[in-house]
Design a protein that fits this description.
alpha/beta; CBS-domain; 3 domains; 3-stranded mixed β-sheet; 59% helix
Length: 370
């Protein structure tokens, strides 16, 4: 994620902090100092926020480590003012696996809250008269925040964990796409409810409503796309009119091809085998740093996944998501025969949708005549 700094690498997963998180810390520290004029109180507020986000990181690692059990790696974890984001390569296709991955995060908060409670109970610090995250000792408030994280994350709305739990449960009884649509609909209804309350109460609820609405809409759209591409071979939608480059070609050759046509990313071949892909972003960055005389081989992206022409478009979309790229080479018996891109997948879906609409219209006219 742009504007993020790496904090470290834990259990083989990079952890980043976004600059907006640092702004949040600075704003809290400054506002508390202006109000209290106490260095110790200000430092305690900062320490408390950092402790909360440490719990958030552990929550995300709960997802990541459980996903790893099912062969799914996590690209990284990023801290944001709204919480943490663990970017899995993909979500499990098995509903039971998705259920366990989704529950793993809140389960970590349950463990943290239980450990803190036992510590308070052992030292006589349990405050049964007040259930508040703003009153009481540092440990008590941190325990209550973890309880709040459990409740919030288990709301049945995407992109919260509860939305994925709901979809996983529904998917065991109905299709994955239908389960996603139902879960997304529940999430959008909750977003509307949060937004309505935000108009008459806490304005922060408006932000949460927007966050939930966008998350639910994106999840439903992605699932619909995968469902539409299921069962369609790659060779029906791949780009067949393309140009390729050699690792020894200068970047100037790639510039000429970009200016002469509409292709942005180029497969790189050596002795008839695909050895990489040169993307437009890599090209522009290299031009700014080294000029036209650098070779394609110095700049290209290596170890790019390759799609066979007989594979399904749904699998091609998954590979595009896993490698975070926009173009993948397509081969047939080891020979480069095309490209699959996010753009031409979207165009294929538009064409298929238009054809379906046309056929539906024809069917309707036939029915009216009969």
């Amino acid at each position: 994620m742009k504007w993020s700094w790496k904090l470290g690498r834990f259990a083989g997963i990079d952890v980043y902090v976004h600059f907006t998180f640092l702004i949040l810390i600075g704003w809290l520290a400054l506002s508390h100092w202006i109000r209290e004029r106490s260095l110790s109180a200000t430092l305690e507020v900062v320490a408390f926020v950092l402790a909360i986000f440490a719990c958030v990181v552990l929550h995300e690692f709960g997802h990541a480590i459980t996903a790893r059990k099912y062969g799914i790696e996590t690209r990284d974890v990023t801290l944001l003012p709204i919480g943490g984001v663990a970017r899995l390569e993909r979500m499990p296709s098995d509903p039971k696996q998705e259920l366990w991955v989704a529950l793993a995060g809140p389960a970590v908060n349950v463990v943290i809250a239980a450990v803190l409670y036992l510590g308070l109970y052992a030292t006589g610090g349990v405050q049964s008269s007040a259930l508040s995250a703003t009153e009481g000792s540092f440990v008590y408030r941190l325990m209550m925040v973890n309880v709040g994280l459990i409740v919030f994350n288990m709301l049945p709305a995407f992109p919260m964990d509860g939305g994925r739990v709901l979809r996983a449960v529904l998917a065991t009884h109905t299709g994955y796409a239908r389960a996603t649509n139902i879960a997304a609909g529940v999430g959008q209804a909750m977003a509307f409810f949060f937004g309505f309350l935000g108009l008459f109460g806490n304005p922060f609820l408006l932000f949460i409503a927007l966050f939930v609405w966008i998350g639910a809409t994106q999840e439903a759209s992605m699932t619909q796309m995968k469902a539409a591409l299921a069962g369609v071979p790659v060779d029906r939608a791949m780009v067949t009119d393309f140009r390729s480059l050699s690792p020894s070609d200068p970047l100037g050759e790639a510039v000429k091809l970009i200016l002469a046509g509409s292709q942005h990313d180029f497969p790189v071949e050596k002795e008839g085998k695909v050895v990489g892909v040169l993307t437009r972003n890599q090209l522009l960055k290299a031009l700014a740093e080294g000029g036209l005389n650098m070779s394609v081989g110095e700049v290209m992206q290596r170890n790019v996944p390759i799609v066979d022409s007989s594979e399904m478009l749904e699998d091609g979309l998954t590979k595009l998501q896993e490698c975070e790229c926009h173009t993948l080479p397509v081969t047939r018996r080891g020979q480069l025969v095309g490209l699959v891109t996010t753009d031409n997948m979207a165009e294929f879906m538009l064409v298929q949708s238009a054809l379906k609409g046309s056929l539906d219209e024809v069917d309707e006219k036939v029915l009216l005549r009969t």
